[in-house]
Each structure stands twice: as C-alpha cells, then as structure tokens.
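Thread title: Can someone regenerate the structure for this chain?

I was given the following input by a collaborator and told the matching structure tokens would be attached. They weren't. Posting the sequence so someone can regenerate them.
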Amino acid sequence: MSLDIRVASRDDLPLLVQLYAQMDGELPLPINSAAEIWNAIAQVPNYYIYLAFQNQEPVGTFSLLYVPTMMHRGYHKFAVLDAVTVIPTVRGQGVGTQMMKAALKLSAEAGCYKVTLSSNLKRHRAHQFYQALGFEQHGWSFKCVVQPSYQINN
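Best answer:
Regenerated them for you:
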C-alpha cells in the first residue's frame, strides 16, 4: 500500500471538513466557517495542510507549520505537526505511519531540527502510536484559554 500525499488547496475544503469531523465523530464544520479559517491559514507563512490518498480515495490529513527559532545554534526551524486524522475504515492499516513518516521527511527537507505535536491526554492509543514512531514525551504541554478581554491578575 502506498499513499499519495499532496498539499491541500481551497477546493479541498469540503473534503477537509469531512475528514476532520471523522476524527472524533463530530458534526462537520459549516463550510462558510471552514472557508473563513482557510483564509486565515493562507495568511500564515510556512503553514501547509496535506491530504493523503490511497487508490485515489482520501484517507487522511495532517498539517505542518515551520517555525523559525533562535533557540539552538545551527538550527533554523522546527515543525509543529497538527490535525493528524486517519479515516476510521483504514485505521490500523499503516496509513497513519506512512503519513507521519512523510511529515517527518517534509520537515527535515524544510530544514527543521525537530517536529513537535500535542496530543490530548485521553488519547492513549495515539500516544503509543507516536512513541512507536520515535516521538518522545518532552516536557509538559500547557494551555491557557483566553478571551478578548483577558487580563493578567497580579
């Protein structure tokens, strides 16, 4: 089994919306909302959404953002891997592995020294999958939900 992986275009929005909905069995995002988000993403340099096809059928997607950094001498960028989705009917058949290997290769070719990703604490199978591919838990991931009126309290 071999995958064809390509960068998604705006014309792929209906497909992307369906793939993302299948990730957690949620309702698809309305296409007008997806288009608004797509337009915002298109303004971010070095942000790519990829689609994976098997026998011309869509089977997954992932996103990569290449971020410049001054933190490590001799290294210029790192990649943030996000929105990794494989359709339920092909999970466990190597599609995710091929997608992840492609993401790592694309990141290396872009000059990145590492690839980072975040995974929900309750996704134990996903954690095992990432570890089997060589990812290591590194530090802690934190989040802070903010609203437009957010203020730091002293």
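The first helix runs from residue 13 to 24.
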